[in-house]
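tool=predict chain=A
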Amino acid sequence: MKLIYERDLTPMKLTSLSGVRQNDATVALAKRLGISRQRMRKILIEKCDLMTLENLGPRYDAAEIQARSDEIGDALSLHHLSTAAGILSKERADHYRALAGEKDVEISDILQAILEEIS
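tool=predict ok
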């Protein structure tokens, strides 16, 4: 017997990401990270619950507002990955923010580390 909470929700998550606002947010996240939409969809499906994916559009918009006043957070997409998608914990976001404040650390290297962590 297979109970509902044991079901694979991947098809439902993919359907959710096909919505207009969800797709726009997925494309925007992918562009920020320099990856394809398909790879971003895969990450979101693996890391997010269905409720988060359903509300990804408005959550992304809220992250955009937060990012406007946070140069480092915007450059690293910290608000987008933690607040909007919930795939990066606040502690890890703070860790990457601290790394960005160090000398001799390139933003692109930090972005690559973030991408490796969430993939």
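The chain has one domain: 11-118. The chain has nine helices and no strands.
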